[in-house]
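Researcher: Last one for today. Full complex below.
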Amino acid sequence: MIRPWLRSLVLLAMLFTGTAMAQGVTLPEVRQVELDNGAVFLLHEKHDVPLIAAEVTLRGGAVSDPEGRAGLASLFAGLLEKGAGDRDAASFAEAVAAVGGSLSAAAGLEAVTISADFMARDADLMVELLVDMLQRPALAAAEMSKLRERRVNLIRAAKDNDPRRLIPTYGNAFLFLDHPYGTPVNGDEASLAKITAREVRAYYEDYVGADRLIISIVGAFDVDAMAEKLSEAFAAWRAAKAPLPEFDSPAPETGRRVLLIDKPGATQSYFWIGNVGVSRNYEHRAELDIANTLFGGRFTSLLMNELRTKAGLTYGASASLRRPTQAGSVAIISFTKTETTIAAIDLVLALLAKLRDEGFDEELITSGKNYILGLFAPRLETSAQLAAQFATLRAYGLDASYVNDYGAAVAGAGSEAIQSVITSVYPSPDNLVFVVLGDAALIRDDVARYGPITEMAITDPRFRP
Amino acid sequence: MALFAELRRRNVFKVALLFAVASWLFVWLLGDLQERVSLPVWTETFVYFLIVVGFPLALLFAWTYEITPAGLKKADDVDQTQSIVFKTGQKLNAAVAVLLVLGALAVVGERLLPTFEFLVPGVPEGEAPMANTTPAEIRSLTLDNGLKIIVWPDHDIPNVVMYTFVRAGGRNEYPGITGVSHFFEHMMFLGTERRAPGEFDAEMEAAGGANNAYTSSDVTVYEDWFPRSALETIFELEGDRFENLAIVPDVFESERKVVYSERRSSIDNSNFRKLHEQVQATAYVAHPYQFTVIGWPSDIEAWTQDDLVSYYRTYYAPNNRTVIVTGDVTSEEVFRLAEEHFGPAPAQEPPPAIRTVEPEQLGPRHLVVEASAQTPLLHVAFHAAGAAAPETLSMNLLLNILVGGESSRLHQLFVEGEGLAISVGGYQDEGFDPGLAYFYLTLPPDGDPVELERRILDELTRVADEGVTDAELSKARNIVLADFWRELATINGKASALGNYDVFHGNYEKLFRLPVEMKTITAEDLRAVAAKVFRANNMTVGVLRAPAAKGPQ
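Model: Here's the assembly. Have a good evening.
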């Protein structure tokens, strides 16, 4: 044990030398319960506020949508909120809201998730609702057709508003084409229209079951009692009927191709420029995060500095990494007024070349490390954040070291390793997929310089030609 | 001279001196107390009155009575040889001396030391005690220049959040400078007399911090999130830009383009924002809440350097700001850093008051925006109250019942039941002055805005006539209570909540009374606020739809 005076001396020494301690995060201990049927429960008590949060993960998700049925998993997830057990859609929603709870289900690319956040005193109700959703969902045909129609109209409404939200969907769809990673997670107007109630029920039988269930709960509750309760509720639950889809990792694109999406009257052009990137368990994750932070992951990134701060071409520019089980995408996203479309895209291409050629100096690398480490802890601050983190790790087959060793990995990343990650992950400007959304009549001829153009209208009922 | 000697013998002068010193100390303490707890405005006058009336009475008392070992006696009745007036005089001297020393210490102490807030305990009641009382670790301090700092230490994670609320927003603008508050928010990141443009963000991010800012009709808020190790750096950076901002012409021009890009992206290319801007402009005929926060295009093109300079001096003065710090800090270190980095800037004349009061609306207003749209939009706004008005919490609960989530009345009716809308939402402005209660609905492509408007009015009239059920009221309370806890689950939420309460409700402690206050609101309160606000004559309706077909219909 360090004596108090010695401890204060150490603290004082740290103050004077200004040593920043590596701001790692160590995940708290979690109780893991695994049933014979494969169901996994991850439980952790946290008593700072009287709340309880749950994250349910069902591996599967949009990649398991059948051909031409993009949005099936998402529609299924939406229907989980529309009645379960003895409750119809309206009384289910009422049960949640009556106690101030929040409960939502959504599909991701590789999982269907249910997120719940309740006051601790309502923990029993929360578990009851989750169990009902998973084991006794209503999946009523009338609710299904109503939700399907609404989803189609919400996509149309999204197209009437700020296109920033849609541009990654267009980008990934055009990059991956028929590969499962090209699936628009929430479907498109054409695919949603074809989905039937029978298909939704089949999805439930095929892809939902104890063998791919993870329930992660964090908050103010008793772990022992909860473990017992969940074990009892799920011990006799069935397995999913169909195997999880298997597919190859997508291959990077060579050469260039361009998709131009016409939105007549748009005063800005929105663009997504990318290629195939890396997977979730990419071994140089720390180096890549540092590089991406410096390139387009923070306010003073290279992209923001040049496009926004220096040139005044845009309000925002970023580099985005999508990292699923197999290789996902790496992309640059920005927007600019119609007249400066080419100036902005040319600048992005020049910056991409500069990134690959020059990388970043030591001072910037230290700055990037500090930035990542300094903002690491608040990402795992609440019960809901921790519950989601536990569930995600388990779903991707990763252990706590993925989080616990990350701080040290970032702190220890060397500049040469970072540079080699940059040249291997960020595509050469010769190999790029472009998606440009804007007033085609005004930019069509200029955009042609980037490669062979395919054109579609924003009102087309799909996210790719 | 005999009278003089006798006055002296009877300690009248000493009593006068003691009275004066004690009064001074009392008035000083009172002033200090007034800064910390809210006393009625007449307290000060009353105390002065007591002192003025008390002074001759005390002198008369000293003249008339004398303290003797046997108790208080009339001086005239005391045998002069047995008198102990001398001893009493010594005690009086000592009392004066002690009070003087105390006073001196207090005055010196106030200059040197930060003053700590007395905490007013809340109402200890209900199942979650912390929900009803101000946590004891929260402290606040007002610097001599008027800047107020509130600190909530929380050591769960090694991080800190700083929010700076500037009482300046769209409501402080006028035609010709609309959008200048928001533009100023941008300029605050673009260089000081000590730092070149870009250095502020570069230094903050290199220290592991991130920041953002937002501007509303009422305030401009600067947010910093950073690790504990960056605490000193952040104070230095913030102190610098709030005191030494440089407005460089080239940077100014480049940033004008960035803001234009923001306007194009967020308004011109968003049907929702396009309609919202028009409804806001139509709902008000007089009050500056009519201005779009980002500014009208002509003004974005026309702001001048002078507009910015005078704006900075008036609105960014320390007496017009409130700073909140939450997270891994102690109040002592925060007060010390605040004194050091925010203390030197002098207070300025308070900004001019907003005098205009929106006159009573005299009839319904309708407007149409034509735009390329697959899905029409309907917005319905009513004049309501300001943040601090008692009925605002009732309206908040009522809006939760009407449009708060899937189970809400209007969602169930229009989206799930009648299929008239694909989404329904609503909010109320909670600003300094009376704002709007606002409903926004998206229609399906073939939807009929006229029919939907009629249905909304039906339902709002119904709630004004029939009120809400007990189950609905209980649901709304639970939603607000759960949101309260979700907000307090993070140091960011804590900073935001403390700041909003202190700025808009005048006192952050009111935040912690919310759970109790909610219980006092009845179903009748909700009906009453509905009847007051949801009237056709108090309504502005905006429709956004595709251009009507050419030629006669």
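Chain B touches chain A through 76 residues (CB under 8 Å). Chain B is about 50% helix and 15% strand.
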